[in-house]
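Just wondering, does anyone understand these tokens?
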Amino acid sequence: MYKRLYRTKEGVIYPMLHINGLTKRYGKLLANDHLSFDVLPGRITILLGPNGAGKSTAIKAIAGLSRFEGEITIDGHDNKSLEAKRALGYIPETPSVYEFLTINEHMEFIARAYGLTGGWRQRADALLARFELDDKRTKLGKELSKGMQQKVSICCALLTEPTLLLVDEPMVGLDPHAIKELKAVFREERDRGCAVLISTHMLDSVSELWDDLRILMNGKIAAARTRAEVDASGESLEELFFDITERKEAGAQ
């Protein structure tokens, strides 16, 4: 198991997600160029960057959906192992639901796949009510709008009570109520000790949420900050982002 540790005011903690030298190529295109960073439990880490920076490529590699060079561990286990899969909750940018399963059946499928016992039905009920799907339980996946499909993906990811929540462009297609609830969920997951990694290019959607920041440019980490560091500098997230990305773009020309 991966043993790197961090010393904090609260004690010693191990990263829930460890990425070392993540490299992904599509032919001659280098989408991820030796990315290395950690995501700690009880913190929200934002992977921020413009379109084409390599964020979604990295997220798919972490989720075990694509091949890559380098090392990724979740809770000390290789990210493609069964132990890592059990720890992971994944909300993709584009929801992928089963066309001929109802919402209720989606929840039961996840519960059975993960071997959930005890109060999973009560948790499923609470999640569906929270995301305004309670009256649509018998609708098939193919009958749902994109926004409703995204809500189903969110509920499925949260049902297992993951220790790592992996989220790619979470606010796309959601209505204002769902966005409000999802932001609250991120805070609640952090507070219970879950490590949360959110990939996005939408500054406004995450400006009040984050604890740790990684800015991605051209497949590389261009900057890493904690909220405390940014607050101490007096610089806003928007100023920091545009200063780094525009400077990098100018330097590349």
Summary: Residues 42 and 190 are 5 Å apart (CA to CA).
